[in-house]
C-alpha cells in the first residue's frame, strides 16, 4: 500500500495482514486480520505516512470502518459503534456541544444491531440488521433524508425509509444513496451535478426512488464525491450519473449526467466476465471483475458485508458453550461476556427471518422470535456453569449499561428477551436481583421509549406477556412480605418493581384485559393494612412499632393495580386514621358537630357548610334537635340517607332526573346560589370521608370524571337510555341512509363544534358527532357545575386515598349496593346473654325470614340507618343481639332509638308478641341513638 505522495512509499505494518482499508481527505484507516485498527494522517505533500495503532480500540475486534472527509467510524464485533475526528457538524454522533475535534475513538450509544456503517463528507449513516437507517451530521442539502436541512448531532432514524428493507448505503460529499433488498435505489441530498439521477439538479431532502432504474433489480450502488454508480447483476450492466467532468462516469465524455446512463465494459468480454464490486472514489470509479462461475454465487443480504457481521447467538454457538469442554472454558467465558454484555448483539439475535418479518420492525412489531429466545435459554440452562456466567454478565454488565435514550425500536428488543431468562434461573434470589436490575433499566427509559415498549408488550403473545407480569408480581410480593414481617426492605427496589407492574397493568387494560385484573393483586397489601388495623386506632405507642410500615403503605397507593377492592377499602380507612392523627396534632381543638332540625334539615346543613367554621378533618358528629342520642355512626348515616332524598326537592333544582334511568345529572344552567354545586360536592365528600353510604343517584360517569376518566356512549346509555339509543342508531344506520337523517352538529341549540349548525352529519363524520354529543352532555354543558362540585368534594373528603379506586369501585363505596344476602346477616350475628340455639333467638330469625323484602330492608335501615348494603356486602354486617333482662319487657321492646349495629332484644316467650313489637319498631322509627 502506498501513500499519496510524490513517490510511492509503502505503509509497513509488521506482522499484520491488512483486511480492510478506507480513506478520507486527510487520513487512511486500516484494519488487520486480528481486528486491530491503524490510522495514518497525511497532508498534501507528506512524504511517508506512519500508521499508528488506535490504542483506545486495541481491545476491540473491528469488523467495519468508514471514512468521511475528516472523521471516521468503526464497528466492532460486539456491535459497538466508535467515531473520531472532526465534529464541526455533529458527524461523530456524540451530541450537541461535543468537541470540534475528537482524536480518541468514542462510543456512540445506539444499542441497535448494526449491519453497515457509512460516512460522507461531513455526515454519517448506519443501517441495522432489520433495515432501519440512522443518519447524523451535516444536513445542509438534505443529505440525511430527514425532510429538512437541520444538522443532527445524534443518530436519528430516517422514518421515510422504514419498512423499505434497506440493505446497503453509500455516501458522497453531500448526497446519499441507499439500496433495498428488492433492488430499488433511493437517493437524496445535493443534486447540483445530477448525482441523484432524477433528471434534475434540485436537492432532495427526502429519499426519492431513482425512476430510471425501476424494474431493474440493482445489486450494488456506490457514491463518489458528486457522482453515483449502480450495478445490475442480472444483466451485468453498470449505470452512472452525476458529475463527469473528469471522466469518472465512464461514458467517454466529460459532461454531467442527470439520469442513469448504461456503460460498456470495453476491457473484457461481457459474456465471460462478471462484476464483483464497484467502487467510487472522489472523482474516480473502479470496477472489479472476475471470470463467471458455472454456479452463480449466493448474494449476501447486506452487499459487501460478508464476514463483517456483529456477533449473535445461534444453535452452533450454544452447543459449543454447553459442551462441557473444560479446556475451552476460558474462550467460552469470553464469548459469553462479549455477547451478553452487548445489547446490540442480543438485539441482533433471534430475528424473525421467515418472510423477512424482522424487516417489518415498527413500534408495534419487535421483529424478534421469542420462541427462539425461550429455546435458547432452555438450552443454556443445561449447563449450570454457563447459566451462572450468563446471569452474572446480564446482571453486572448488560442491564446497568442500557441507555435511557435508545436510538430506535430494535434497541428495545432487549426488554423482551431478558424476561425469558427468568424461566431458567435456579433461585428466587437470582430472579429478584435480575428483575430489579431490569426494572431500573426500564424506568431509565425516556417517556417516548417507554411508550414504544408498552406498545410492543401489548402485541406480545399472551404466554410471553404473562411471564413478565408473573415475575414482577412475584418479586413485588416478596419485597412486601419482608416489609410486613418487619425485615429491612429495599424500598427503591420494591417501588421500581411495582412501577413496572403498574405499567404492565396499564398495557393490559388498554389491550382489553388479556390477563385478569386479579392477577395483579398482591395479597400482602391487605395483610399489611390488617396488621395496622388490628391495633387500637389511636394508640400511638402501638402504631410506633409499625412506623416503617406506616410510612411505606401510603406510597404504595401510587400503584393501585396491586390493590383488590378490599385492600383499597383498608387503605381508605388507614388514610382516614392517619388524617385524624395528623389533624389532632395540628388542630387539637377542631370539631365537626352538626346540629339539624328534621323539618329544616337541608337548610340547616347548607347554612352550616357556608359558615365554614367546622374542621373538615374531624369526624362528622350529627345531632337531631329534640332527639336523644349520641352519634357513633348511626346518626351520621341516617343524616346522609335523609339528605340525599331532600336534595332533589331543591327549588330551583340542581339536578335533572332522567325518568328512564331514575338517575340524576347536573342541570346545565347556573343556580341562583353560586355555591350550590360546591356545597353538594362537600356533602358527597363528607359522606365518603365518614364511611357513610349515600346514594345521590349519580351515574357512573360522575365517578369517572372524579377520577379523570372520559365518559363514553356507554355512560350515556346508563344515564339516558332513550337518548343513547338514538345515537347508537346513527352509528348503526346504513351508510347511505345517514345523510337522510338531516342531523347537524348541534344539540338543543348548542353547537357541538365550531360552526356546528353548518356541518351535516354524514357517514364519514358520524363517529365524531356521537363523541361530540357525549362530550357535550357530560363535559362542556356542565363544566362550571362539575368544577364546583369537584372542588367541594375534595374539601369534604380531605383524604386523597379515594383516587386509587376504579370508578365502579368508588361508586360502590359511596352508594352501597342492593345485593341482599339475608342469610349472611344471620350467619355473622353475635350474641350477648344468648346462645344461637335459644328459643328467643330461633323465634327472632324465624320471624325475620318470614318478612317480605321491603320489611327486611326496613329492618336493615332500622339497624344501620340505610337500606343499602355497605362495602363488603351482608358479610360485613355483624350485628350483636343482647339479652336485656327486664321485669316489664313491654317497656323495653325494640323502638326507634335503640340500635346501630346493636339490637337489644328483651325475652318474649311468644313469637306473635315478638312479631308485633318488632314490626312496630321497624315501621315507625324516627331517629337513632347509639348506645
UniProtKB/TrEMBL annotation:
It holds the Pfam family WD40_RLD. GO terms for cellular component: cytoplasm. RCC repeats lie at residues 35-78, 79-130, 131-182, 183-234, 236-291. It comes from the Eukaryota. Gene3D superfamilies: Hect, E3 ligase catalytic domain, Hect, E3 ligase catalytic domains, Regulator of chromosome condensation 1/beta-lactamase-inhibitor protein II. Keywords: Repeat, Transferase, Ubl conjugation pathway. One of its GO terms (molecular function) is ubiquitin protein ligase activity. The active site is at 899 (glycyl thioester intermediate). InterPro entries: HECT_dom, Hect_E3_ubiquitin_ligase, RCC1-like_dom, RCC1/BLIP-II, Reg_chr_condens, Ub-ligase/GTPase-reg. The keyword Transferase applies. One of its GO terms (biological process) is ubiquitin-dependent protein catabolic process. Residues 610-931 form the HECT domain. The keyword Transferase applies. This is E3 ubiquitin-protein ligase HERC4. It comes from Acipenser oxyrinchus oxyrinchus. The lineage of its organism: Eukaryota, Metazoa, Chordata, Craniata, Vertebrata. The gene is Herc4.
